[in-house]
Amino acid sequence: MSVILGYLVALGCIFGGYIIHGGNIGVVLHALPIELMVIGGGALGAFVVNNQRKVLMATLKALPTALKGSKYTKARYLELMALLYDILQKARKEGLMSIEKDIEAPQDSPLFQKHPNVAKDHHVVEFTTDYLRMMASGNLNSHEIESLMDSEIETHHQESHAPVAAIARLAGGLPAFGIVAAVLGVVITMGSVGQPPAVLGAMIGSALVGTFLGILLAYAIVEPLGGLLEQKAEEGTKELQCIKTTLLASMQGYNPTTAIEFGRKVLFSTDRPSFTELETHVKKK
């Protein structure tokens, strides 16, 4: 909702100011379809050439999330840390081998099904169970597991930022495509140099719409969208860092209550539950 509202404010103020200053909106609307075809078509073709198929698919998958609110809320983090607490508490009381069935089949595990919002996130479940499996095997120490976690989180970070980088490059190229559209309009105008000044003025005005549209699309539409997707990607990385910190604290001998407190401290302050909120939520669960 905030994305649509932001676009409406931006476009409303830009075109509203143009009209208030006496601009003829009809000139813009008349040239708009052709300019959009030149700029949008050229930018789309370059976008396809500039990115691998996996990046194109990731971008298409990421775009709808921009219109949705963030799923990384305080409620989600409370559920995540309650899940980690339950797993670590069971491992502490009954031994690491007691969580083997939960790790191997999380979709059938009462511990995971107790926290459905987190359990349906495939990436979070896979990340958690993979490292719990390594902890249970006893073949790796905490430093080795931490190094491996850092490598996986970095890979996840790069993958989640690939659509962001692709959109940023698209935004950077749109003003240039606007200039291309404007130059084409000037070429057409020069071919009609014998026309009356009023006709030539209208043709030059239509040509300049291309430059205006390219800059508008870049800085009012596409670049803000890329910035929003970047923030969402950072939130996904932060969740994995929370899991990492909690599991490592457990490996270093801290009890489950202290381990999830380590994880809580990693979260952004805007979404981080307080100590009391976390303690109360865990006891309820």
Overview of the structural elements:
The protein is mainly alpha-helical and 285 residues long. The protein is elongated. It has one domain. The protein is 81% helix and 0% strand.
List keywords for this structure.
single chain; 285 residues; mainly alpha
Q: N-to-C terminal Cα separation, in Å?
A: 33 Å
Name the helicity range.
over 70%
The number of distinct helices, counting runs of at least 4 residues, comes to 12
Summed over residues and divided by their number, the pLDDT gives a mean of 89
SS-derived structural category: mainly alpha
Brief rundown of the structure:
The protein is an all-alpha fold. Helix content is 81%, strand content 0%.
Topology record:
Elements lengths: L1 H19 L4 H26 L2 H10 L11 H21 L5 H5 L5 H4 L2 H4 L2 H16 L4 H49 L6 H55 L4 H11 L8 H10 L1
